[in-house]
Amino acid sequence: MEGPSRAALAAARATLDELTAVPPEGGAAARQSTVAAAGQIGSDLRAVADLLGADLTLRRALYDPSMPAAAREGLADRLFGGQIAPSSLAVLKSAVAGRWARALDLRLGLIELAVEALLVDAETSGALDEVEDELFRFGRILDRNPQLSLALTDPAAPASAKDGLVERLLADKANAVTVRLAKQAVADREFGDLSRRLEEFSRIAAGRRNRVVGVVRTAVPLSDDQFARLRSALSRYFGREIQLQADLDPAVLGGVVVRVGDEVVDGSVLRRLAAARQALTR
Predict the structure, then answer these.
(1) Which contacts qualify for 262-271: CB closer than 8 Å, 24 or more apart?
(2) Which 8-state DSSP code applies to residue 23?
(3) Are 3 and 99 within one domain?
(4) What is the pLDDT of residue 151?
(5) Which of 9, 195, 201, 272 fits a disulfide with 109 by CB distance 3.0 to 4.6 angstroms?
């Protein structure tokens, strides 16, 4: 997203955070109420985003930068007031009041906000790290099992069959939030590669703690000390805390390959061998 869209998303996210914050003195009942409200917001925003995906005229009307923000909010109120929860409507109005770089960004922003709302459940229960890791690892499993990935992305397969397959794969093995987000990723066929979509959800989860997701590929597992030192070094380098995910890949041969966003640091034996072969052929 371009600058204006990022600013609009940040403003809507602030509204979401305010509505889903657990009071400092809140006990179990308050946390449960927050989780329930956040789950409803997630479902409502996703439904609105899907509607905007199907109705280009509506999407353009809610985005229209030539209209005052109050007019766009009023339109959202007339269309969705009474149809979605009041807290969901508040987040939606905050979103449409923003200045998005393009109409599509409004829809993508609502989808991201829906994911963040679902992550409130994991965050409130202290399971956010667990969900991040499970989403990442599920994506890696799909990368290494083309038949399984095909079964989950086959456009001819009914959605119920895909949901059932996700349940069988993850039930009793992953957090309920992970299962729900995995099903959403499978449903997001229009966004392309499934494992990349899962990685994007992991990035959003990491962002809940103002962290960046990095992936370190090694031929053999790193020790806890090596892993901690690498994460610390990367955090210093990028100036932000890095949530590091480990990916075992025998093709690396030795050393490490680290990817943080679009930046890749390749310290593998494979790279050094390739460089040596290139030098010999000059």
Answers:
(1) 268/217
(2) P
(3) yes
(4) 93
(5) 9
Query: What token pair was written down for 150?
Result: 């095909």
Are residues 64 and 4 located together in one domain of the fold? yes
Q: Give the domain CATH number at 267.
A: 3.40.30
Q: Could you tell me the residue range of the domain that residue 162 belongs to? A: 127-208
Give per-residue pLDDT as tens, 4-15: 898 999 899 988
pLDDT at site 276: 53
Domain count, the chain: 3
What are the strands of the beta sheet with 241-248, ordered from one edge? 241-248, 211-218, 255-260, 263-268
Give dist(CA 245, CA 15) in Å, integer: 30
The count of C-alpha atoms lying within 13 angstroms of the C-alpha of 268, restricted to the half-sphere facing its C-beta, is 21
CB-side neighbour CA atoms (13 Å) of 263: 8
From residue 120, give the alpha-carbon distance in Å to each of 67, 145, 216: 33, 31, 27
Query: Residue 212 — φ and ψ, nearest 5°?
Result: -110, 140
Strands (DSSP E) contained in 199-274 are: 211-218, 241-248, 255-260, 263-268
Asked which of 124, 150, 174 is the last residue of a domain, the reply is 124
Burial of 169: CB neighbours in 10 Å, binned 0-12, 13-18, 19+: middle
Same domain, 6 and 36: yes
What confidence tens digit (pLDDT) does each residue in 100-138 have?
999 999 999 999 999 999 898 888 878 888 998 899 889
Amino acid (one-letter) located at 32: Q
